[in-house]
Model the fold of this input.
Amino acid sequence: MSEFDLIQQIRSASLPSQPGTVLGIGDDAAVLRPPPGYDLVSCVDTLVAGVHYPGNTAAADIGYKSLAVNLSDLAAMGAQPLWATLALTLDSHDPAWIRDFLTGFAAAAQPFDVDLVGGDTTQGPQVITVQAMGAVPPGEALCRTGAQAGDRVVVTGTIGDAALALHQLQCGEPVDEYLLGRLNRPSARVSAGLQVRNLVTSAIDISDGFVQDLKHVLKASNVGAKVQMDAMPASEPMIRAAAINQQHLQLTGGDDYELCLTVPQNHIDEVLTRLDAVGCGGQVVGEILAQPGICIESSTGELTELGSLAGYEHF
Ligand code: ADP
Ligand code: MG
Done:
């Protein structure tokens, strides 16, 4: 299979549906027209085999996740996804692998009508880079810089599921199907981001672990936070697993792709109602403090000061 056959295979599997796709795959570059008056929002993420996913992950799951992690970044900006590009580096041109990869990619794209409008194809050790683009009204993008003392910290969905799945995989334990789905097919919280756009002071998606990602918001906003461990939402399989390391998984485990929002108290009810309405739900897990640093309150009421913003690894 030649590079050109491969591009043709990708092109036939990616018919555009966005009115703003003036020119998609096939020329030297794509021509894209954002909705009039909107700002363009762009992000890119690379997945490396063996680093970002276990080497034996199914092609369809890799395809799904490579787009979903980018849609999650758009969600965390409060942007409406529109387009993606795909840079594929593959060790071999295996048509069945590409077909399955594209099926997964399309499954992540379809709920939001994201058009695949271009990319690049090269040979080498497997690396997948996806760029996603979306649109937001001027001044309405959700940044990391707006958290204010007194805001509540809210997370969507449940936390720690992907890390527990990875833990089970790595220990050779039987892996819970639901948790494996959370690891391989994360739901980008796009509707949640759009729904809370004018009600929250900051947003970030939880890709590197709750504490790690919250720290980015705290640093950017120059504030601190207190987090209640017993408020941290856990899925049924997480509770059933009764892992002794649940707290660790929930605080440090990455790959959940839930949103972490800071919400002024007077908007809390509305935000929680809207998060319920879009299906992911939301949970208040803490409060923003003027004093920098993170303080974790355990389920037994014990307080652990995480101290310096860089110090979490030693916890
Ligand atoms: P050029 O050599 O001009 O960069 P290419 O042969 O790399 O052109 O690409 C031809 C067309 O196919 C372009 O529109 C490009 O965006 C698209 N394309 C190439 N690889 C991919 C891919 N992996 N996914 C989507 N589109 C791709
Ligand atoms: Mg090219």
Q: What stands out?
A: The chain has a mean pLDDT of 93. The pocket of adenosine-5'-diphosphate (ligand 1) is lined by residues 7, 10, 25-28, 86, 88, 116, 118-121 (CB under 6 Å).
